[in-house]
Amino acid sequence: MRALLSGLALIQSGFRCFLQLRVASEGRALAHHRVSQEIFGECVCVCVLEFVCLRTCFSSHCCVSLPVLCSVVFGPSSVFPLQGEKSSRDEQVACAMLATQLDNFLGGDPVQHRQVQGFESPEFMELFPRGVSYKEGGVESGFRQSQGSGTVQRLYQIKGKRNIRAKEVELTWSSFNKGDCFILDLGETILSWTGSQANIFEKQKVREIASLIRDTDRHGKARVVDTSEGEEPEEMLKVLGPMPPLAESTSEEDSKADASNSASLYKVSDATGAMTTTKVSEKSPFAKELLVRDDCFILDNGANGKIFVWKGHGANIEEKNAALQMADNFIEQMKYPRMKTQVEILPQGKETIIFKQFFKNWN
């Protein structure tokens, strides 16, 4: 894979990219591309910046980060298109095209996570061990100081009463509070932590999500450890450090979480010659059988700033290539704030835990 990619040249419609990769000591190969707008007539050129240990992006540009991970050890690869808050529409389109080209070259297997400056996901920040800084009028972002190794270390917050959801949060005690449940995923060990003020629904959900991670991401080869506030095991303290006093929780926070956790499912089709969306379910949890392999679907969690596009194996190439455009059109149609809404594009079989939790009995 690395030998092929190191000499890859992508040339299409005036966009040129030379993809250069270098293997870091932990076994990761990482390429970082700055998509810069240079107008020569009507040609938009794509400039490339090789990335290994750098941590600077540009607020007036778009970036595409491609971590090429060993499929045996680290799981599937991902593509992270990043839009600077001052990037132009042309640059955003160029960034989307490059991400689609990279996705196609890798056989449609990568999961695409579109990022927006200031609203980056924890998955994206994992790529920058020393944090990210934005220049040319950008803002400093020290969201995550991630470990550089391939060891799994993720923290999920479980929150709500009626619409209970997990979301990945910063790996620090400051993310915790007494009123919620959390999952610390350490790979071989999955720690399920319950706050002293957590409600019964969160307590049930945290066990479900921990088991889902074990059974689907680890193929049953991990142990789930249940723990409660005040009984933190050594494994947990080793990663997070000594536990400071935790924030209290209020019922209003659960009500807000319920509203933002709501989701709907839409089917996408081009059978009429134009891309159309049809709502197939108005309320989660959805039946997994609604995801038909010959189509693409949009899972709308826009109230929480997230849109998922699921690509079935049998969907036609036009639908798959238009996935990001589908999401953009949907965001505009629903009047969601475009620069605050993350988009995740998931090929069938590469679904994330955050996506799976919206469905009944995914196993």
From TrEMBL:
Keywords: Acetylation, Actin capping, Actin-binding, Cell projection, Cytoplasm, Nucleus, Phosphoprotein, Repeat. One of its GO terms (cellular component) is melanosome. GO terms for molecular function: actin filament binding; phosphatidylinositol-4,5-bisphosphate binding. It comes from the Eukaryota. The keyword Acetylation applies. One of its GO terms (biological process) is actin filament severing. Residues 242-262 are annotated as: Disordered. It is found in: Cell projection, Lamellipodium; Cell projection, Ruffle; Cytoplasm; Melanosome. Residues 83-125, 163-237, 280-355 form the Gelsolin-like domain. InterPro entries: ADF-H/Gelsolin-like_dom_sf, Gelsolin-like_dom, Villin/Gelsolin. CDD domains: gelsolin_S2_like, gelsolin_S3_like. Belongs to the villin/gelsolin family. Interacts with NUP62. Interacts with NUTF2 and RAN; involved in CAPG nuclear import. This is Macrophage-capping protein. It comes from Poecilia mexicana.
